[in-house]
Amino acid sequence: MSKDLPSTFAQGLVASVPIALGYFPIAFAFGVSATGQGLSGPEAFALSLIVYAGAAQFLALALITGGAPLLLAAFPLIAMNIRHVLYGPALIKRAGGDAARRFAWIWAFGLTDEVFGAALGHLARGRTFSEPFMGGLGLGAYSAWLAGTAIGAFAGGGALAGYPVIEAALGFMLPALFLALLLSILTRPQLPIIAIAAAVTIGLTVFWSGTAGILGGMLAGALAGVLGLGGRHES
Amino acid sequence: MRAEVLILCLIVGAFTYGFRLVPTRLDLSKLNPVGPLSRFLSSTGPAAIATLFVASILPSLQGPWQAQLPLGAGVLAVLIGYASTRSVVVATLLGSFAYGLVFALI
């Protein structure tokens, strides 16, 4: 396979396999948790279908079941997802500033944390950017998320209660995926950026909140890059 | 389906979609490859993934030491799995398996 040929939709689907393997059990756990906390199956599925942002969905569960007013519930969920504004430009920059974006209105819907990481890893291995690839990558991940939610909601609350080992192993799937994705794009000059992002995430999470930790860690790491801590060359 | 849940989904979903789509429309073709904005965008990827990894393991790190043994095994398995295969899939599955195995043993 030539590295110069545009990446295909099928390659995107293949690249989505690790994400799908990570998404399915998490979405399953979300469906189980949602119905266990009193949401109906269609309500749980609507959150995955329309919002499609795992951490925000779990927070939405807590807010909905806690009886938070609509606008009050929407604000932290929107704030939690602000980090996604960084992904599109970072990806396009890595793909080449003139990368095709004609169908971004389709594939950008699925530009989640993990899809962004996988796309970046794909490019870091010398492959080319293409919109069909992004479509395949996004579709595979989205399908797994929807299927996991639907099956979890159908199984109902407490479905994993009798299988704590499986529940624990599935719960580590997402951290394992993040770590593997990080390793796949890692270069030595980026180590200071990663160290700063990690330290700020820990500090803000411990002393403020998880959302502040995620947003602050990303921004601190990116600003460290601006200061030249990630090397002055184009990565 | 309750109307307020659907409205919440639509509001948050619309903003999230906007956050993902609108920035992809920025024209980056004339961007100075060693300029500040270029460095900011190049650093965003590793910073974002490192942040999400740390955020996802922090609850275990803050828990009792028993919770940290499976975490250590899982992290080690991902590192070994990736170093030996260069496969994100294999590393992820090995990490999850090792985590579950140590969790079962303790």
Describe this structure in words.
The complex is a heterodimer of chains A (235) and B (106). With 235 residues, chain A is mainly α. Chain A has two domains: 9-186, no CATH class; 188-235, no CATH class. Chain A contains 13 helices and no strands. Chain A has helices at residues 9-15, 17-36, 41-51, 54-65, 70-81, 87-95, 104-107, 113-124, 131-155, 164-171, 173-185, 191-207, 210-226. The longest helix of chain A is centred in the middle third of the chain and has 25 residues, at 131-155. The radius of gyration of chain A is 18 Å and the shape is globular. The relative contact order of chain A is 0.17. Chain B is mainly α and 106 residues long. Chain B has four helices and no strands. Chain B has helices spanning 3-21, 36-61, 65-85, 88-105. The longest helix of chain B has 26 residues, at 36-61. The radius of gyration of chain B is 20 Å and the shape is extended. Chains A and B meet through helix 2, helix 3, helix 4, helix 5 and helix 6 of A and helix 1, helix 2, helix 3 and helix 4 of B.
Task: Provide a concise account of the structure shown.
Chain A is mainly alpha-helical and 235 residues long.
Tags for this entry?
heterodimer, A: 235 residues, mainly alpha, 2 domains, 13 helices, 71% helix, 0% strand, B: 106 residues, 4 helices
Architecture blueprint of SSEs:
The complex is a heterodimer of chains A (235) and B (106).
Chain A: H1 9-15, H2 17-36, H3 41-51, H4 54-65, H5 70-81, H6 87-95, H7 104-107, H8 113-124, H9 131-155, H10 164-171, H11 173-185, H12 191-207, H13 210-226
Chain B: H1 3-21, H2 36-61, H3 65-85, H4 88-105
Helix pairs in contact in B: 3-4
